[in-house]
Design a protein that fits this description.
- With about 180 residues, the protein is α/β, with parallel strands linked by helices.
- It contains two helices and nine strands; from the N terminus they run αβββββββββα.
- The strands form two sheets. The protein has a five-stranded mixed beta sheet, with no helix packed on it. Strands 1, 4, 7 and 8 form a four-stranded mixed beta sheet that branches.
- The longest helix is centred in the first third of the chain and has 21 residues.
Length: about 180
């Protein structure tokens, strides 16, 4: 039944709800979205054999796939940080006049990883070089979160009944799947 203004009240209510919904979507579309970054970082300290900081040393990282090179100078406390690095394999070089150059190879960075690489420079000339090939996995000492990267090969080889994503959690160290022990109230 039509009202005195000539329009159906249900049609007007739906139209008003549509306008409010549209305005809400426009407002939500303008909100900032925080997402996981795809870059990695390398941080650490540079010290001499006595444990004293080596300020002014140069730390250079080279992405072996693309040749990208980034260099930073160590601060007064002996610390350095190189952020926003693409994932992949890297080579790190630390050097300062009066010390032997140290080269670290086999550094493989994954998504959102912050690798800590502490370097010890030995007294000597820059002509001498110490090369270390990373054998142990990098340990993240900067955050308390546990994360890992599950490769395509691991997913294909895992016998999942129904391919439930929560069973993939057990592939990472120090994780437990507690979804089956939840009590629904």
């Amino acid at each position: 039944m039509a009202n005195k203004t000539g329009g159906n009240p249900h049609t007007l209510a739906r139209f008003a709800a549509s306008i409010v919904g549209l305005i809400g979507l426009i407002l939500l579309g303008n909100c900032p979205v925080l997402a996981q970054g795809f870059a990695a970082a390398i941080t650490g300290t540079v010290k001499d054999t006595s444990g004293a900081a080596v300020p002014g040393a140069m730390v250079t990282v080279k992405h072996l796939e693309t040749g990208l090179t980034r260099a930073v100078e160590v601060d007064a406390a002996g610390s350095y940080s190189i952020a926003s690095l693409p994932v992949g394999e890297y080579e790190l070089t630390a050097e300062k006049m009066g010390f032997q150059r140290e080269v670290r190879r086999g550094i493989n960075l994954v998504v959102a990883q912050e690798a800590v690489l502490n370097v010890t420079l030995q007294v000597g000339t820059v002509v001498q070089q110490v090369t270390v090939t990373e054998a142990a996995p990098l340990v993240n000492t900067t955050t308390t979160s546990t994360s890992g990267l599950i490769s395509e090969q691991q997913i294909k080889e895992l016998p999942l009944n129904g391919r439930s994503f929560d069973q993939l959690l057990t592939l990472n160290m120090s994780t437990a799947n507690i979804t089956g022990s939840r009590i629904i109230q």
